[in-house]
Amino acid sequence: IFRRLVTPRSCSLFLRNRSLRVTPFIPHPTFTSYRYCNTAFINDMENADLTPEQKAELRKQQKAQKKAEKEARKKRAKAGNKQTGNAPAKGQGKRAKDIRLKTVFENKTPKGEKKIMEEPMREKYDPPAVEAAWYDWWSAKGYFKPDTTKPEKFVMVIPPPNVTGALHMGHALTNSIQDALVRWHRMSGRCTLWVPGTDHAGIATQSVVEKRLAKERSITRHDLGREAFNKEVMNWKDEYRTRIVSQLKRIGSSLDWDREAFTMDDNFSNAVVEAFVRLFDDNLIFRDNRLVNWSCALQSTISDLEVDHIELTGKKKLKVPGYDRMVEFGEMIHFAYKVEGSDEEVIVATTRIETMVGDTGVAVHPKDERYTHLHGKRVVHPFRNTTIPIVLDDQLVKMEFGTGAVKVTPAHDPNDYMCGKRNNLEFINILNDDGTFNENAGKYNGQLRYNVRYAIIADLEEMGLLKKREGHSMMLGICSRSGDIIEPVLKPQWWVNCEDMAKDALDAVENGDVQLIPPTPHQSTWKNYLGNIQPWCISRQLWWGHRIPAYRVSINGNEVEDSNGWVVGRSEEEARKNAEKKFCVDGVTADQLTLSQDEDVLDTWFSSGIFPIGVFGWPNETEDLKKFYPTSLLETGKDILFFWVMRMVMMCKKLTGQLPFSQVFLHTMVRDAHGRKMSKSLGNVIDPVNVIEGVTLDNLGTILESGNLSATEIKKAKAGQRQDFPKGISECGTDAMRFSICSYSSQGTDINLDIHKVVSVRNFCNKLWNAIRFGLTNLGDNYQPESEIKLLGNESPEE
């Protein structure tokens, strides 16, 4: 027990001739409530000095004592039932008795005052009785605030939870580890600060609110308008921010709540605008027409983080938002282009046949002798009444794969995009934002993309150009927010040139200025990502988020060309001054200029990237910024190493000249007992408060029904809950939950969380409780622990 809970220097325990000597000890920082932790004890039942006969007699006495205590409990319970009329129903047995025991405790401590300890020690470990009142008292006494008189400091910022919903067990792991670290450094005498906050999570939060509006009121955001819709999202934020704070406190997180931040409060919003303007002025933010991940369902660009990739080994039908029928994927379609002026055909193949409407070339390998005679020739496009060139490209084409000829759609495929750039091909966008084809698609204009797929197959077959259809393995990108199939689309967006900032972040790790813990495999991940970094798209076509502080300029009502027609400013007034400097030439006057702010918002990771400085009031030179930045350590999940951690290092170093932290501790991911990713639709997402307080199977189902899942998803999720939690989740308490998930984390691999292990740790707490209770009984009322460690016998201090 003591090896798990204390350090050798914090307690001294010596058992000699059935005597017991104990001293006060410091509890392990994983534990949050210390009801009886001022005195520790242990009783060695198998002391070597006892004879076998004495041991047998001692066990006999203990057995008789245990039996007598059990009979006494039965009598007390029976007497209580007669007074209250709460006799257990037949068949309830032990479970009903446990419930009666739990309801006995009543917290009589006024909120914020030190816990009243008059009640005698309870017969069983009861988490509510142990944990009640302490957190409010700690907060009221200011124990979570930094003591700036201390010479050493330890500062962390919380990875801000998204306000999309309540916390889950992954957050419980994160905050249990962080709280253990903070409490340890606080007990070690350092000036300790742990800053709380929440993230607005633009695309995720907008998505869940839109789903709620559709489910409860059958309306869309467009029915409300931007301002009214953002009020709905703000109400959602207020609801879940309150719940998140409550959960963090219930977990025992010793955060300084007076410094709580939100990534869209006024101070933080000013910091985001300032960061954008400074990076733009340094020519690191630019506007360009490039390929993005497009979600037709959300009608927005999304980041790589919001794209789930699934592998198909052959033909498979999937449900796609907006379609009445299932859509088939994993099929390779072979079709022919006729060479201009002849009957010769060039056969190509694709798994996205609908994109051939936007083909602007056919690529072959320059060394492929099969096509040498076609170099410089053109083929006829069957649907656009035009011809497209045959180009030579040794990077896109593999001679041994398929026919050795590849269709090229530069505006709708990343590899084709690069081929188009190399060969100066035309870029034709065939897709509207809502997933229908536009006027560039000719006869397919206005039709949904996958309806066009089937129409093109039928038309090619009728024209004699369809050659073969076969199953084919492929990777499919799916929007994690909507379930839609991602489309690569050419869009004019705002981008960040990360090349120089990435080099600084690389050097920081290589030089040891930022230490990744554990170094393997994270250092190689850091190096591979930053060593091959691409421009970062920061535009999002959303309403909820930080609106981009860029303004489109029009002269006499005519918009200036997109790539050059923008100005940036901290306010519209500043932007107008910048516009006058840039455009008031050659007779153009200020009154001829009109400005309109970009409707798009910034990628959430942009604002999250400045979290370690935004929480301290940057760009203002605040006292907190001077005292507590840079921070000491960042603790977070390994899955957001390059989505968040790298961007914080890059942006904070660029904007302040200082690295945001010197150490990064990356913990493993929490999965369910079967190794599956936590998902509401699987029914395996667990609220840590439900583990702490317990929850019935029926209430777990009720929680599902209150969310945004469809009826089909609810049915599937409830089946998962019945399988994993047939009797609900037992009350385990905060300490048992924290101790169990932290012990999981020490294993270094992803956590396959089994609730039964948390229950077993609660049972361990009960054993410890009973041992302490037994020890206190034998020590007597007048026992006082020794104030200093004393060695017995001839042991030396070194021993």
TrEMBL record:
Give positions of region: Disordered.
54-96
Residue spans of biased composition, Basic and acidic residues class: 54-72
List locations, semicolon-separated.
Cytoplasm
Q: How would you classify this enzyme at the top EC level?
A: ligase
Under what name is this protein listed?
valine--tRNA ligase
Coarse class of the protein's main subcellular location: cytoplasm
Q: Please provide one cellular component term from the Gene Ontology annotations of this protein.
A: cytosol
Q: Which InterPro entries match?
A: aa-tRNA-synth_I_CS, aa-tRNA-synth_Ia, Rossmann-like_a/b/a_fold, Val/Leu/Ile-tRNA-synth_edit, Valyl-tRNA_ligase
Which transformation does this protein catalyse, written as a reaction? tRNA(Val) + L-valine + ATP = L-valyl-tRNA(Val) + AMP + diphosphate
What are the protein's GO molecular function terms? aminoacyl-tRNA deacylase activity; ATP binding; valine-tRNA ligase activity
Q: Does the keyword Protein biosynthesis apply?
A: yes
